[in-house]
Amino acid sequence: MMELVCPAGTPAALRAAVDAGAHTVYCGFADETNARNFPGLNFSREELAEGVAYAGARGAKVLVAINTFPRAGDQALWHRAVADARQAGAHAVILADLGLIAHAAETHPDLRLHLSVQAAAANPDAINFYAETFGIRRVVLPRVLSVEEITAINRQIDIETEVFVFGGLCVMAEGRCSLSSYATGLSPNMNGVCSPASHVAYSEVAGNNEARLGGFLIHRTPKGAPLPYPTLCKGCFTSPSGGGQAQTGHIFEDPVSLDATELIPKLQAAGVRALKIEGRQRSRAYVAQVVRAFRAAVEAAEVGEPMPAGLLSKLTEGQAATTGAYAKTWR
Amino acid sequence: MDLTIGPVAFFWSAEQVRDFYRMIAAAPVARVVIGEWVCSKRLPFWQHEIPGAAECLIAAGKEVALSTLTLVTLKRERRQTEDLFASGLPVEIADLTALRYLPQGQPFWVGPTVNVYNEGTLEWLARRGATRICLPPELPLASVETLARAGEAAGVAVEVWGHGRAPLAISGRCYHARLHDRAKDSCQFVCGEDPDGRPVETLDGRAFLTVNGVQTLGHAHMTAAGQIGDLDRAGVSALRLSPQIGDFGAIAGFYAGLLGGQAPGDAVAKLRDLLPGAEFARGFLDGTAGAEPCL
């Protein structure tokens, strides 16, 4: 059966995910070493050890994401996170930074290393480079690849692949995007945040609701209509054109989330080892519901049954979903 | 400090490329990085200009390196990346993929789209043969200082983004094609219509970003003109200037003057004369939002 890798932003979410059928749970420490560095989220060292014990007693594994890029002069914080994750009994750490990976491989040769999506290894050469140089055991594939490309990659590499199937969707190559810091000064790579709430402002102007990020208008909707969170790359903008008509709309991506449920059998045939659900910032109830649905889906895929339909309609209600780059036409 | 001209980000005609490098051959810059940086589909239209441009620049006393793509995915792109190492010129890697093809012991440069955020990464790349690294534009001055020191110790020249629209993101999706209701595979090379990129504004009319095929850049021209003293004291060895349409030789000349000790005075006012209508940002060095305008 394909492995289901589920998010946990809190110890309660970790237990909920395990109880709902997660094979594996991933989480991070409560600091800037992980890419979901949100207030009130993430694990202390003690909580991680307890989480590992809880999961282990129920046959599940815990991965620790240490997937921001260490700040120059401050690498010790990241080095300590790797050592502490190992100490707590994590099954693996998920890393993105070349220097941190080199450090982990050298200092903890027995520690299993996964390559974070933030490392943006998008072809067999990059993946084989990490595998051969550092003994990386699994790569989380960037969301820029089609199913056909994933199939081809799996034929040319010897390590496991993990892909995102549900939740937030980056339209840019992850780990290589400074849009958020361009507008706010805070970025996923350096601060573990994208389009941070601290820089969001809502206002009502002439019968419209407006959402701004770092002062830049990202969404404007008529009063009464839903106003999406101002994630920069999902914003509504105008592009003037010298020769032609100005275009107004979601120039990068609509405010959609990823739902690749229907592609699970294809991803399985493509040789994908694990399916990942985004959402460490989500509630325990959300996590439980999504995990339960996806556990049913991977079990169905395992015996060649069709994907259960409408499992997640409640969660995506009012919000459009896409299969993203997995379908080549998305590009 | 001296000056490096980065690879052209935009889709220029062969003629534009030829004229540009002729102009740069006469400009006061120490080195030039040439190559298709953004989209491999553009390369057949201008790659025949590369040998001549390199020859002309080398004859003018410049160092020349060839750049890889920023995002390598296709088989064709992987082969092109591999071929660069056999060119006899130094290679600047814009994607870590290139390391798989790097011949043992061959020195290389690292471009600003590779994530070098800390000493650990810089030192690892140096051990592998990196001799020159242009840091990601996103870094604040404190990181630049630490990395320049680490570079000095490791024998790596450290460069900083000095001028131009900063590369902010790269995607599998082509936004130029999307703006024309096309997919990437049937783009019909529409990015060629916008040799300085296509502007993206907020709904209230504020210039914000620039779309360039699969790449997204800032709208404002980042300039380190006001921070040259800080960068010099930090041990930074070069400023990178990113090509654009217009009199780029004059822009290079302006920065060469600043490096030569010319008092910056109102540097931005002079830049405004060279690039009428452009907006300028101080960039990320202050640790603020990259779009923060120069006053």
From TrEMBL, chain B:
Top-level taxon: Bacteria
Keywords (A to Z) from UniProt: 4Fe-4S, Iron, Iron-sulfur, Metal-binding, Ubiquinone biosynthesis
UniProt pathway annotation: Cofactor biosynthesis; ubiquinone biosynthesis
Cofactor list: [4Fe-4S] cluster
InterPro entries per UniProt: Peptidase_U32, RNA/ubiquinone_mod_enzymes, UbiV
Binding site for [4Fe-4S] cluster: 39, 174, 187, 191
Function: Required for O(2)-independent ubiquinone (coenzyme Q) biosynthesis. Together with UbiU, is essential for the C6-hydroxylation reaction in the oxygen-independent ubiquinone biosynthesis pathway.
Family, similarity comment: Belongs to the peptidase U32 family. UbiV subfamily.
Subunit composition and interactions: Forms a heterodimer with UbiU.
Protein name as catalogued: Ubiquinone biosynthesis protein UbiV
Annotated source species: Paracoccus marinaquae
Species lineage: Bacteria, Pseudomonadati, Pseudomonadota, Alphaproteobacteria, Rhodobacterales
